[in-house]
Amino acid sequence: MNERDARIVAVIKALREGEVVSYGDIAEVAGYPGRSRLVGRLLAVTDDDLPWWRVVTSVGRLVPGHELEQAGLLRAEGVTVVDGRVHAAPVGRFSRPVRP
To answer: Do residues 45 and 8 lie in contact, with contact meaning Cβ atoms separated by under 8 Å?
Structure first.
């Protein structure tokens, strides 16, 4: 695995339970802003055991063809999924402030 892919994989492996981010978020944190498609490609072809279900599009859309599985995994971590999109997550891009 080259250094670029290793950096992206490391960011994905660091995602915590209930943390949902976008492909672009992963690319930016790994040091490759604007390379969200690279992240998607890597997730599609890697043999590494990665928490792929925690990565969605910037508008929260789930992985086409894997929506039911991904939604189930996310809901098990406390994420709100409605109509194939993440609406709220405990941590990450889709987190919502808790009202007292």
So the answer is: no
pLDDT over 70 (residue 7) = yes
For domain 3-92, give the fold.
Arc Repressor Mutant, subunit A (1.10.10)
Q: Count helices and strands (H / E) in the chain.
A: 4, 5
* pLDDT score at 97: 65
* Alpha carbon distances (Å) from 47 to 7, 13, 93: 15, 13, 26
Q: Where are the domains of the chain?
A: 3-92
Query: What pLDDT digit, counting tens, does each position of 20-53 carry?
Result: 999 999 999 999 999 999 999 999 999 999 999 9
